[in-house]
């Protein structure tokens, strides 16, 4: 899978994959205009969306209503480095959600591919390729 990435002016960056564009910007502190989510925002959104898919699939298989179920993500950051130290995904269910499905739903949510990728970090190599190469 190849993703093309280009600079789109100011601090805006566009990635293109499968004919779709994903636009990011950076927070205002490092000079961004906050015109789009930051790359870290997208990483967290990918984690939340992936987890949501597994929750949705779990509920669909059991014909559980989805209209009152939602997820949220909260993060803790190191005060010095500003790096994320902890990520908490909360699955919000209605008060009458069947107790017998709580643990199985958590197991299903834990199958998220993005979560597994983050927990088992791949090797990342950055190279410079000359246009003459």
Can you give a write-up of this model?
The protein is an alpha+beta fold and 133 residues long. The chain has 2 domains: 36 residues; 82 residues, GMP Synthetase, Chain A, domain 3 (2-Layer Sandwich). The chain contains 3 helices and 5 strands. A 3-stranded antiparallel β-sheet has the order 1-2-3, with no helix packed on it. A hairpin with a 6-residue loop joins β4 and β5. It is elongated and about 60 Å long. The mean pLDDT is 92.
Which fold does the CATH topology of the largest domain refer to?
Answer: GMP Synthetase, Chain A, domain 3
CATH class of the largest domain: Alpha Beta
Number of domains: 2
Structural class: alpha+beta
Based on CA atoms alone, the radius of gyration comes out at 19 Å
Number of helical stretches of at least 4 residues: 3
End-to-end span in angstroms?
A: 21 Å
- Percent helix range: 25-40%
Low-confidence stretches: none
Integer average pLDDT: 92
Name of the CATH superfamily of the largest domain: K homology (KH) domain
In the CATH hierarchy, the architecture of the largest domain is 2-Layer Sandwich
Strand content: 15-25%
How many strands appear in the DSSP assignment?
5
Overview in brief:
The chain contains three helices and five strands, in the order βββαββαα. It has helices spanning 39-61, 102-109, 113-119; strands at residues 4-7, 13-17, 20-24, 70-77, 84-92.
């Amino acid at each position: 899978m190849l993703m093309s990435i280009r600079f789109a002016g100011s601090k805006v960056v566009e990635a293109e994959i499968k004919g779709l564009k994903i636009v990011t910007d950076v927070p205002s502190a490092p000079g961004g205009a906050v015109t789009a989510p930051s790359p870290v925002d997208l990483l967290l959104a990918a984690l939340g969306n992936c987890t949501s898919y597994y929750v949705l699939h779990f509920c669909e298989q059991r014909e559980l209503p989805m209209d009152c179920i939602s997820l949220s993500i909260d993060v803790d950051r190191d005060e010095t480095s500003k790096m994320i130290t902890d990520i908490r995904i909360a699955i919000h269910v209605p008060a009458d959600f069947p107790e017998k499905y709580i643990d199985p739903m958590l197991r299903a949510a834990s199958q998220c591919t993005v979560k597994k990728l983050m927990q088992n970090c791949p090797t990342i190599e950055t190279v410079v390729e000359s246009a003459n190469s």
